[in-house]
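User: My instructor asked us to take a sequence, write out its structure as tokens, and then describe one feature of it. I'm not sure where to start. Here is the sequence I was given:
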Amino acid sequence: MKIYNIATKKKAIITLSLSCYLIACLILPPFYYDGAATSLFDFGGGLFCVLCGWAGLLFHEGILRVYFLSWFANFTYVIAIRHLIKNKHKAFIYWSCNTVGLGLIFAFCRQIIVDEAGHLKSITMASGYYLWVISFLILLIGGTYTLTHVQDKKYAKSQPQKQWHRRARFYKFCRYELKSSPWEEDSLSPSHEIYPCCGAEFGCNDYTIDATITYRNRWIKSGAK
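Assistant: Let's start with the prediction itself. The structure tokens for your sequence are:
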């Protein structure tokens, strides 16, 4: 059930993020020319920017060229989604943060070239641009929250199970009665005692949950002898 919930959360996050991304690219205008009530980019302008935004790197000069590095956010966005799906926490954080950072660069752009003569026009960011950036933030925040829970579960699952034995009267594999503490006097070091019922070594075959399940299943398959 927990795995199902995590998968469901990831699907919800990706779906919400992609929905915002597609609405920003296909419906809403990314920016307006200052002084104009409408823009050539009113409908589908975001898609035009996605497909042709690379041209800004070629035709602009100086600081204006730097702003068009934002175009690469569309690629890092896809890479971040891929790492989220694969539960790669550090890689996801890296690419998702890069996506947000690249996307925000264009917010500082105030002019773009509008014709072959190189004339510049001032622009103002519109709803399409802001929703585009919001889609990246949704992925970063939601994905980080989800993968952090995945990492916590993996960490807890890999930790030594010392608390399992401190008050136990019977050994968990075979219900062998514990006549003495399986821990040394420092309460930190396992005794490495071999239990005659199942042959398990305390501190080795039961050191983690994974090791416990693996050994117990093998013991049962062998006839529990």
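For the description part of your assignment, you could build on this observation: Residues 155-169 have pLDDT under 50 and may be disordered. Try explaining in your own words what that tells you about the chain.
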